[in-house]
Amino acid sequence: MSVNGRRPLDERKAAFCPVECGRCGAGVLAAKFSPQHTSVQWTEAAVRACAEFMAFAGLGRASALVEGCGSLRDSIDAAVTAGRLEVSPPLEVTPPFEVTPP
Fold this sequence. Notes:
By secondary structure, the protein is α+β, with helices and mostly antiparallel strands. It is built from three helices and three strands; from the N terminus they run E-E-E-H-H-H. Strand 2 (27-32) and strand 3 (38-41) form a beta hairpin.
């Protein structure tokens, strides 16, 4: 939806929560903005603890080039199912009104 040719801001109330990987125990902060959109904040310690990231590191790939960790994704989905991590839907934002000078 656009108002006066501009799209309103899509502000979301992100509820970052700690999630621990069920496979390797790597701890991250995660937020869900929709069933498809997940934001994960990795620490250096979590990257080092992650079994999947370390497997790629053993092949000489930088962690920044790894798409993600399937085991952690499963742990995040389990946290959502258990109610420990909520999906934060977009907030209803009223677009600003433009005032036309007389």
